[in-house]
Amino acid sequence: MAGSRISEQLPPLIDRNQSPLAFGQRALPRLAAELQNPELTVRQGALAALRDLIHDPERAYETIYHGCLERLKVLLKDEDSSIRTATTEVLYLLTAHSVGREAILREDVVGCLSELLDEPVDACRRNTHLVLKMMSGFPAGVACMVSLGLVPRLVMKVAAETEDIRELVLSTLGSCMRVDTQAAQAALASDVVTVLREQLTHSSTNIRREATAAMIAISVPPQGKVKVCEEEVLPVLVQLLSDEDLEIKANAAGTIMNTAVITKGKFQSLQAGALAPLLHLVECEHRAVCANALRALTCLAEVPRAREQLLQHLPLLQTRLNHPEPIIQRASATAIQVISWTP
Amino acid sequence: MASALQPYNQDPNGAYVFSSRPRPAPTRLKYKDPAVIQNEESYVYGNIMYDRRVVRGNTYAQHTLPLRSQPDPAELKKQQEARRRALARKRAKEQFRLLTPEAPEGRKHKDVQTELYLEELSDHPEDASMGCQTDAFLDEPATPLFIPAKSGKDVATQIEEGELFYFDTEVQPVLEVLIGKTMEQALLEVLEEEELASLRAQQRAFQELRNAEIVEVQRLEEQERRHREEKVRRLKQQREVLENERVIAEKIAARVFAQQYLADLLPSVYNTLRDQGYFYDPVQRDIETGFLPWLMTEVDSALKKREIVLTMLDTLIYDVANSRQET
């Protein structure tokens, strides 16, 4: 009779492409040795087995402990494209764990990955960009990427890549610029604003969303604001305020609010007619959209001409004072205060 | 020795039960058939003293059986050697025995064919071929089922439901394991995904808040900067105005003072000049500087002349007087 205790181990998966796993502690050293094998099928099998193992954090730690990263680095330069694709996939699964990310930084795998940016095989490139996206989520990773000079290269890749990879590149750029100011400087030096402006009018929603997110990140440092004003991005953003996707609206309003902090930005936004759509967005229920719109109106209200117009819409803003979210309450209170200010 | 282990039998009372009882070895009766012995139930026990199988007498010269059932390897080798030697001898003997006796001296063996002509043995017996073939497409009638005659006893067995196992109760743990495992796995995956999703949502919420707060901070900074610059500019302007005013006031004061100071400058200057004789009547000056000195010098010279004359006169008079006196 079968016992009713469920074992800790996963049910055995018989996949012919995977090399068989040795028992217990011996599994990973054996896989590590197999990765160096000159036979192609052996290496492929080892990579397939590793790919399934590495979901478990314990196994990921063991992999790093047994020095598999060195072998993986060598495999990144392998001639066979399926090996390269599988290696990048393993690296992507490794970045899901924090030990993996630290180890990748320590062993300088990002340098080897940057050579794969020009890879002809799509899947391999996609995995590479996934790894870079995960690495750009935290400051040490972004510092590493900036020191390797990856930011300008990524900016150039935006226009050149296919759609789904372009999303990843845009999101990587966005997080880099958000996390580290040096990255923002480097990106500004390579005309990122021009590149992003072209992507703002793309037909795919995802790309527009990522592009606007990157825009809002680049408009935080002062030079970014100046650049945004110079490149005449504001009319496009005002158009995007009427887009269907909520996140795009929130990001566009956010960029406008960031740019309107400087005087030039204020005047350009008013010229582009940002007031009416922003007032419309204040009524939206989505927290980000509402908050960004309120803040944008606050910044624009420092211009006397806009203040006159906005004084008529004060009741609308006052309805927002009773919103349950504290941020919206504060934003609307500040907006009302600024609008009602007299010299 | 290597007998299969027989199952352990146990008497219901608990006493041990043999599967084969030990018994003494039966003797072979000399004058009875083996068939008779088989039918006998009781065994005939013989006297051990008269049993030919028992060894008697001194043992040091006995031909003993080998210790193991297999013959001793040394013995084996000796026997093999003996056998091999016998074979060799036989083969050698064979070789020496020729098939035909050797030719006596002076003669030689020669192969000869006795028949003059070779005749092929072409004595074939008469043979005739006969063929036979069954009709090809005649259907064979169905062979009747061969049912062999029944022999032996029929025994049947049938496992009724519920005798081996009860499916419903037995399947429960199996099902539990299967479904439990699947559900657990699925739950783990869903949990992981939910965790990731909630992490992302939290991150996004944080980002939104951060964006809003950053812009507020920047706006206030900007405002502060503008106000400060404005203030600085205004202060500068005010200071300049004050400075200007002060300069102007000083200028005015200086001007007034200068005016005052210089008011009676002119008369005093004129007075001083006049006192110092810078304003003069030219004729008077000319008289004073030119004429009068000349006059004086002339007067002086005239007076000097007079004096000289007088002195001379005096001396003359003196001389005269003296000379008169002397005379």
TrEMBL record, chain A:
Protein name: Radial spoke head 14 homolog
HEAT repeats: 233-266
InterPro entries: ARM-like (IPR011989), ARM-type_fold (IPR016024), Armadillo (IPR000225), HEAT_type_2 (IPR021133), RSP14 (IPR042856)
PROSITE patterns: ARM_REPEAT (PS50176), HEAT_REPEAT (PS50077)
ARM repeat residue intervals: 232-260
Domain of life: Eukaryota
From TrEMBL, chain B:
Biased composition, class Polar residues, residue ranges: 1-12
Keyword check for Repeat: no
Pfam families linked: Radial_spoke_3
Organism of origin: Astyanax mexicanus
Keyword terms of this UniProt record: Cell projection, Cilium, Coiled coil, Cytoplasm, Cytoskeleton, Flagellum, Phosphoprotein
Record's protein name: Radial spoke head 3
Coiled coil segments of this chain: 210-252
Residue ranges, annotated region (Disordered): 1-25
High-level lineage: Eukaryota, Metazoa, Chordata, Craniata, Vertebrata
Cellular compartment(s): Cytoplasm, Cytoskeleton, Flagellum axoneme
